[in-house]
Amino acid sequence: MTIGILIALLGCNQDSWADVAASDWVVSDYDRIRLISSGTNAGNQAALGIQIKLQPGWKTYWRAPGESGIPPRFDWTKSQNLESIEVLWPAPQRYASYGLETIGYKAEVVFPLVAKTRVADQDLAIDVEIDYAVCKDICIPLQARLSLNLPQDTATDTRYAETLRRYGERVPRAGGTNSASGTPTLVNFVPIESDGQVYVHATIGGITNPSEIDLFVEAGDDFGFGPPELVGRAPGDVVELRVPVHKYRKRANLRAQPLRLTLVEGPYSFEWQSPVAVD
Q1: Where do the CATH 2.60.40 domains begin and end in the chain?
Q2: Pick the CATH number of 2-171 from 2.30.29, 1.10.10, 2.60.40, 2.40.160
Q3: In this structure, are strands 213-218 and 139-150 parallel, antiparallel, or unpaired?
Q4: How far apart are CA 130 and CA 77, in angstroms?
Q5: How many Å apart are CA 4 and CA 9, to the nearest integer?
Q6: CA 92, CA 63: separation in Å to the nearest integer?
Q7: pLDDT tens digits for 220-260?
C-alpha cells in the first residue's frame, strides 16, 4: 500500500521546482548524503528520499545490518508540520568480510520516504538528524543533519523523480500467501534443530531462479540469521531453504518474536510480515 502511495505521488507533474527540491550535500571522506524530493501536498503527502553516494569500496547498512553493521537511525523531531514519516528500504545485498556477514548497499542507495503533513495547506519543513555508518576495511560512524522546505500546493516532477521512482521499485512488494497471488508464496516457516544448531526452515513457492535467491530474516535484537542454504526443491517451483539462527540472549524465544522475511530473487524482492512459525 505504501509503495502505491509513493508511485502515485511521483506521478504528479506541474511546474518544476527542481532548484529547491534537494538539500545541500553533507560530505565526508567516505560518502555524501542529502535529501531529495519530487514534490509535496499531493493531498497531504510528500514523496522524498535520503540519497547516499559512497566512495568506491565503501558500503552502508540496511535496517538489519548483519553481524557487524550499524543500522541507520533517524530523528525527525525538529521537522515542522510533519504528522508522520515512513522510511522504505530497498532490497539489500549480502557481503562477507573477515569472516563476518553484513547486509547493506554499495555505491549508492536512496531510502524513499513517504511523509504526511499535519496541516495540508501549509509548507512542510523536513529536518532530520541521521546516525549511520559506512564500512570498508574499518567501520566509520557518521552523523548528518539534513533539512528541506517543501512548499504547499506543489505537486511536481522534478529532476529527482526518476531516481525516487527507480529506488521505490526496489522496495520489496508483499509476498503471496497462496498460489493464486501471482507472487512467490510462503508455504511454511518453522524453527528446527539439527546437531545442536537452530535453523529456520522456509518453504517458498513460485521461485523461477533458485540460483539467484537470498532470504533475509528479522526477529528483533535477540537474534541474528546467516545466509540461506538451498536444501530441497519440489514441483511447482517450490524451494526449501534452511537459515542458521544466532541467539544473542540465552533465554530468547524465537517462537515468541514477530518475524519479517525479505526474499530477493534477482531484480525482484518480496516481503512477509510476522509469518506464523508452526510445526
Answers
A1: 2-171, 174-273
A2: 2.60.40
A3: unpaired
A4: 12
A5: 9
A6: 9
A7: 888 999 999 999 998 879 999 999 999 888 888 887 788 89
**What is the CA 158 to chain-centroid distance, rounded?**
23
pLDDT, tens digit, 9 for 90 and up, residues 2-29 = 555 444 455 444 444 455 689 999 999 9
pTM over 0.70: yes
Query: How, if at all, do strands 197-205 and 223-225 pair?
Result: unpaired
Task: Domain 174-273: give its CATH code.
Answer: 2.60.40
